[in-house]
Amino acid sequence: TPHDDLIHPEEAKMKDPGEALLDEGEWKKNDMFFEYRLKEAESLRLQGNDLFKAGKYSEAAVKYRKGLYYAVFDESQFNFELQDDHRLSVVKTVTPLRLNYALCLCKDTYESLCPPLPSPEDRYSEAAEHCTEVLNWFNPKEPQEGMNPPDQVKALFRRGVARMKNSDFDRARSDLKEALKLEPNNQEVRGGLVTLKELEKGDIARQKALWESVVSKVDQENKEEAEAERAAAAA
Q: At what angle do helices 123-136 and 84-105 cross, to 10 degrees?
């Protein structure tokens, strides 16, 4: 039965999309004690890590997303019902799951193996959302205890990459510059900014070519219209 001290009644009524990842007979999170939820999430994270190291990014994404199903708590429950040590445990479990999940979604070979994992078209937006959830815990006005500064850089960088791949260049640049400000010697972030610059050049060239094509088409239509008017006048 649910642990009345840790499971909010409202949460029990809601069906998490991650529930679709459960195999027959597996426990639903609302029927598990707090400690077992996090233990299962940690086990899934480690399984995901092994798959990631083997280059199986889509399979790893499934493990990370399933881990998040167990580890993520309702916002009101997290803030007002969990004890400090419980919140700290959740933060330490959820942060790497979100960051690793976002990383998998941004891989070129990613495939949506099953619901609720996002489609290839929607994956970058979802990756950015998970990075934002991590960054919310770094809010200077209400910093969450237990957060590690390197994770802020990871979240900014991975959100920047997700936005870059989604052609959201302005916000991608903002993320990458913020990450570089925190770690000026981070070569991965520097490389991201170089890639972004090249993508922007290509985007400008593409837009220019598209505009020239439109202008050329309009000029041709005007020319044909003028010739038709001259032919009509000569008749």
A: 150
The mean pLDDT value for 151-159 works out to: 97
Q: Which residue has the tokens 């309009």?
A: 218
Give residue for tokens 């936005």. Answer: 163
Distance CA 156, CA 159 (A): 5
Q: d(Cα 86, Cα 35) in Å, to the nearest integer?
A: 9
DSSP state letter for 4:
T
CB 128 within 8 A of CB 162: yes
The C-alpha atoms of residue 180 and residue 156 are separated, in whole angstroms, by: 9
Three-state secondary structure call for residue 119 = coil
Which candidate, 10, 135, 21, places its Cα nearest to that of 74? 10
Give 81's contacts (C-beta < 8 A, 6+ positions apart): 5, 6, 8
Take residue 119 and report the two structure tokens written for it.
């489609």
Output DSSP code: residue 54.
Answer: T
Q: What is the pTM of this model?
A: 0.82
Q: What is the mean pLDDT of residues 203-218?
A: 65
Q: Which amino acid is at 215?
A: V
